[in-house]
Design the sequence.
């Protein structure tokens, strides 16, 4: 299982979510994807999308103005 | 100094005219040259396509000859650029000619990618070109009732277009006396009905009031034309009788070919210079930038004014005078006779007010006043 970083810093809503959707398509089931975003809206948008689609939301943390949103591809 | 402007849409045209007026003397003396390369000898008022799609304008009203919009002294050529050579300050064009520059302004715009979703181009109507807007109007004329789905991909040109077309359709079907036979449904990629939060907060209750249903977190995946079903990346499906798409956009192919992802040029948000080692004498305006703001005519307009003012100041006194603050102003047509607007910048979000007839009439007037904007007068 791989862990992939999606660096969407500097991109505003809905950019980070769109990059995650593209990243999910390319990922394998079980892979972890960590989105880095400077738009705090991502901390809400991404978990909401992950819940709707049925992937697994792991955690969100903020470090120095960058939100790290970690999810796992579940299907 | 040779200033080369690539693109004759709103951004390129305002930069050229504003600059020509500020540098009248320098143009006359030959100290400065302004050259514009465009893909067309005509200029289209693109926001008018929304009205064409619902039968409220005709295509001929949307065009002017590009040369007629330009200040004297601007050298205008219809010669689409085929390649940028940033390292040697040159571009190649379709005619086979090479044009060199001291300063380059990239204003090439964006294009709707109907082909990016399987089945979309074959099964959906859209209104981002003259041809498609006329085709959509004819489809509406022949529609007698059923489920109309307006589906949205991002990023796209004109941030308000998805809401506006939905509100306009509501009135269109009411005027035809068949609103009760039409179910209007709207889908949007993120968790609310518009990417600007305050606009979404205003628009969702308007949808509810008009009986328009919506599904958020819906990213188009494919269209099953045989069964008239639109499928999403999220696994949901929605049936339609008439599908109307605002597809995701990309920058122009020539920009993509220069190595820029999706055709958006990385741009400094304040100075509007292209990022990177060759960006010092390259400015970017309008849809072409990768800036996190709306791809709108007004964005191009306000950016163009900053670029022209700064370039003129550099010629006259060796330094630029101001930064772009992210200003955008968008009218929102909230039906056939009501409108509001959203004004915002990098730091201040919009706060749309209830729609009024007065703003609608101002928008109607602006549909004509646009030509004074393009000339750099308004």
Sequence:
């Amino acid at each position: 299982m791989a862990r992939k970083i999606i660096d969407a810093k500097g991109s505003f809503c809905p950019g980070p979510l769109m990059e995650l959707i593209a990243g999910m398509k390319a990922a394998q089931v079980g892979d972890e994807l960590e989105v880095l975003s400077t738009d705090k809206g991502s901390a809400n948008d991404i978990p909401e999308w992950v819940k709707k689609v049925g992937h697994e939301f792991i955690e969100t943390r903020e470090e120095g103005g960058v939100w790290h949103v970690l999810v796992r591809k579940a299907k | 100094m040779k200033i080369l402007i690539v693109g004759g849409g709103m951004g390129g045209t305002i930069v050229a005219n504003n600059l020509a007026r500020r540098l009248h003397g320098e143009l006359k003396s030959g100290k400065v040259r302004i050259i514009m390369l465009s893909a067309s000898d005509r200029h289209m008022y693109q926001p008018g396509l929304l009205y064409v799609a619902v039968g409220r304008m005709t295509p001929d009203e949307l065009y002017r000859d590009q040369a007629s919009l330009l200040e004297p002294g601007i050298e205008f050529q219809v010669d689409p650029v085929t390649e940028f050579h940033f390292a040697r300050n040159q571009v190649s064009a379709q005619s086979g000619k090479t044009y060199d520059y001291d300063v380059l302004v990239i204003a090439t715009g964006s294009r709707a990618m109907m082909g990016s979703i399987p089945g979309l181009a074959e099964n959906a109507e859209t209104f981002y070109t003259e041809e498609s807007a006329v085709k959509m109007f004819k489809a509406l004329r022949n529609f007698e009732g059923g489920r109309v789905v307006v589906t949205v991909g991002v990023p796209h040109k004109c941030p308000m277009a998805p809401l506006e077309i939905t509100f306009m359709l509501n009135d269109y079907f009411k005027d035809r006396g068949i609103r009760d036979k039409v179910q209007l449904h709207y889908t949007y990629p993120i968790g609310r009905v518009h990417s600007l939060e305050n606009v979404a907060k205003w628009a969702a209750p308007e949808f509810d009031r008009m009986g328009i249903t919506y599904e958020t977190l819906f990213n188009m995946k494919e269209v099953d034309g045989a069964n008239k079903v639109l499928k999403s990346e999220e696994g949901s499906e929605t049936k339609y009788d008439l599908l109307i798409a605002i597809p995701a956009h990309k920058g122009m192919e020539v920009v993509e070919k220069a190595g820029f992802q999706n055709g958006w040029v990385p741009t400094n948000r304040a100075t509007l210079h292209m990022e990177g080692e060759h960006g010092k004498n390259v400015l970017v305006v309008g849809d072409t930038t990768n800036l996190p703001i709306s791809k709108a005519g007004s964005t191009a307009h306000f950016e163009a004014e900053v670029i022209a003012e700064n370039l003129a100041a550099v010629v006259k006194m060796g330094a630029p005078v101001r930064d772009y603050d992210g200003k955008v102003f968008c009218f929102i047509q909230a039906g056939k006779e009501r409108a509001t607007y959203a004004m915002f910048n990098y730091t201040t979000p919009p706060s749309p007010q209830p729609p009024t007839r007065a703003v609608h009439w101002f928008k109607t007037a602006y549909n004509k006043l646009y030509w004074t904007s393009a000339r750099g007068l308004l």
